[in-house]
């Protein structure tokens, strides 16, 4: 499979690893980017952008990375907090009076609000209707008392944060993200695509039985959380124009690897948030069970945190991350859903080139 892009000399082997990753993907392609010390060490892309293999993946091909979107949604609220317009410790009801769950904005950012699953069956149409989805969330009792436990709000994180943005600023989260976060920092990442952007989007492929089987080990609550409304793992839904134009800011951002890694580079350079809020971004309560995705997890304000850094992975294998030890920002964006081993292999090839231990 042909690989296009650039690799700085220390990371030359990364191109070979990326070529192997592409060869293993029978569907659409991928992109991978790494920023360090003001330059792009890696900026690679390749494969096909469509399931029929007629359109090549190019430097500006966009793809949906599922939960890699969540930190972008969080930035909208955090930018407003930095401007003194949002109080992170205020009840959500200050900004969304009709919401039943007694959570704070901080709870919502750090996946502690308990709004992770709907009790009543919801239609796929709710993804395309912001007011309908919010009306369902307004009446939903939280799965646990807000603030007492944590669990990733797989589908609803962006609606909770988006309602805060709308109340304070008047713009939708997607428009605020575009105008106040991504455009000022040159990030090719979007929630709610325009006509021009629709022409750059890669199809998601790989929703076969082996992929679905790989997710069956998750807790029962995960399947409730990701399956209602139905369609978030249905190729016919997520590759549709209505989905791509809509705002589902927990999962349906679309971007390039360079656009995702660029967010973490901008954060590291202090260009997005103040130093004080950067400290809060990565402050956690320590490792606790995640009641939705299982296992131990540390949540900051819209980002996952571990001993080496912070960021977010998404269903299907995409990720965006900042490494403290390596002082680099990295992102892998794939159109063919699968496991995270591909991204780990690529990042470890970079770390080996930089003389760092593997992740």
Account of the protein in words:
It is a single chain. This protein has one domain (3-353): 3-Layer(aba) Sandwich (Beta-lactamase), CATH 3.40.710. It is 35% helix and 14% strand. It is built from 14 helices and eleven strands. It has helices at residues 12-24, 70-82, 105-109, 130-139, 157-169, 173-185, 195-198, 209-214, 220-227, 235-238, 241-245, 257-268, 275-281, 341-353, and strands at 3-7, 30-36, 39-46, 189-191, 253-255, 288-289, 296-297, 304-306, 309-313, 319-323, 328-334. It is globular and about 55 Å long. The model has no long low-confidence stretch (mean pLDDT 97).
DSSP, total strands: 11
Strand arrangement within the widest β-sheet reads 1-3-2-11-10-9-8
Share of residues in helices: 25-40%
Derived from helix and strand composition plus strand pairing, the structural class reads alpha+beta
Our count of helices gives 14
List keywords for this structure.
alpha+beta, 35% helix, 14 helices, 359 residues, Beta-lactamase, two-stranded antiparallel sheet, 11 strands, seven-stranded antiparallel β-sheet
Quick recap of the structure?
The protein has 359 residues and is an alpha+beta fold. It has helices spanning 12-24, 70-82, 105-109, 130-139, 157-169, 173-185, 195-198, 209-214, 220-227, 235-238, 241-245, 257-268, 275-281, 341-353; strands at residues 3-7, 30-36, 39-46, 189-191, 253-255, 288-289, 296-297, 304-306, 309-313, 319-323, 328-334.
List the helices and strands and how they pair.
Elements: E1 3-7, H1 12-24, E2 30-36, E3 39-46, H2 70-82, H3 105-109, H4 130-139, H5 157-169, H6 173-185, E4 189-191, H7 195-198, H8 209-214, H9 220-227, H10 235-238, H11 241-245, E5 253-255, H12 257-268, H13 275-281, E6 288-289, E7 296-297, E8 304-306, E9 309-313, E10 319-323, E11 328-334, H14 341-353
Antiparallel strand pairs: 1-3, 2-3, 2-11, 4-5, 6-7, 8-9, 9-10, 10-11
Helix pairs in contact: 1-14, 2-5, 2-6
């Amino acid at each position: 499979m042909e690989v296009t892009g650039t690799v700085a000399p220390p990371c030359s082997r990364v191109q070979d690893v990326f070529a192997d990753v592409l060869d293993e993907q029978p569907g659409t392609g991928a992109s991978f980017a790494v920023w360090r010390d003001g330059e792009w060490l890696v900026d690679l892309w390749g494969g096909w952008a469509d399931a029929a293999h007629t359109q090549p993946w190019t430097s500006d091909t966009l793809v949906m990375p599922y939960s890699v979107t969540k930190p972008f949604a969080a930035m909208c609220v955090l930018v407003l907090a930095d401007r003194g317009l949002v109080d992170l410790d205020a009840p959500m009801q200050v900004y969304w009076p009709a919401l039943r769950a007694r959570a704070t904005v901080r709870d919502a950012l750090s996946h502690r609000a308990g709004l992770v699953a709907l009790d009543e069956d919801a239609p796929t149409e709710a993804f395309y209707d912001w007011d309908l989805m919010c009306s369902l969330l307004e009446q939903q009792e939280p799965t646990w008392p807000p603030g007492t436990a944590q669990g990733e709000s797989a589908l609803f994180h962006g609606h909770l944060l988006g309602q805060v943005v709308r109340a304070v600023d008047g713009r939708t989260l997607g428009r605020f993200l575009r105008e106040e976060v991504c455009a000022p920092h040159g990030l090719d990442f979007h929630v709610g695509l325009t006509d021009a952007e629709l022409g750059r989007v890669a199809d998601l492929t790989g929703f076969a039985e082996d992929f679905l089987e790989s997710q069956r080990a998750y807790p029962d609550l995960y399947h409730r959380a990701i399956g209602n409304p139905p369609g978030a793992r249905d190729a016919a839904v997520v590759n549709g124009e209505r989905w791509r134009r809509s705002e589902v800011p927990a999962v349906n951002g679309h971007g390039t690897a360079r656009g995702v890694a660029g967010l973490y580079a901008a954060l590291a350079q202090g260009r997005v948030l103040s130093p004080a809020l950067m400290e809060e971004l990565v402050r956690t309560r320590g490792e606790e069970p995640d009641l939705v995705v299982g296992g131990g997890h540390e949540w900051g304000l819209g980002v996952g945190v571990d001993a080496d850094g912070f960021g977010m992975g998404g269903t299907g294998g995409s990720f965006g991350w900042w490494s403290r030890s390596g002082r680099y920002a990295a992102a892998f964006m794939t159109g063919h859903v699968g496991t995270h081993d591909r991204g780990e292999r690529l990042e470890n090839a970079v770390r080996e080139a930089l003389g760092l231990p593997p992740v």
